[in-house]
Design goal:
Shape: globular
Strand content: under 5%
Number of domains: 2
Structural class: mainly alpha
Number of helices: 9
Largest sheet: 2 strands, antiparallel
Number of strands: 2
Amino acid sequence: DKPINLTNGPQGIRAIQRPPLFFKPVLTALGITADDATLYALYFYFLVLLVVGFAVVITRRLENSWVGRAWTAIREDELAAQAMGIPLVRMKLGAFAAGASFAGAMGMIFGAKQYFINPESFTFMESIGVLAMVIVGGMGSIPGAIVGATVVTVLNLQVLKGLSLLLNQLRATDAVIPIINYPLSRWPTQLDPAKYERLVFGILLVIMSILRPQGIIPERRHQLELEGRRAEAAPALAPTAGGGADG
């Protein structure tokens, strides 16, 4: 907040105005009525879909352009890219600005939806969640990023919190664990699944790094490289296998 107060520092930005419901008169004319809460939920849902679609199109265009190829070259080998005449500093700043623009667009929507935003809105777990989305889905893959975001979001919001809610409901009914006859009412609240989000994400990252480091949907170029290596290795193994069969 110093020397110029732009974000109000740790106090955050309060009373963020939501965008007007410009389509409400049209719905009223069509005889469709709904409260503002429902309309805003639909508004932000389709707005997010629109922004995601726009980001996918722009990213795909950049990927197939000379800018995207330059970014790929820098990622693979900075020294070789510089030797080919690619300006490292300029291209890195461009990549950072492009990524920050997408993050800023979604941050604007997030702030308008929440009415309020401050540094506490972006905790360490938010960074871990984004990292898990990228690694699980596949780095460098647009479909992989979407699938990874879906898997992590469902795991966090539906599975873990759903298990905690179910556990709380079973506690209220005095249910017991079969075989050992342990009453769930005595189950400590410190062991609720939702409180172990970091542990679950950490285990997920370790498992993906070991079993499938390329992610669920790997980058197409990376996938073609793997297929090429397998095709090159197949002829080398064929004579050995054949010799063993003849022997």
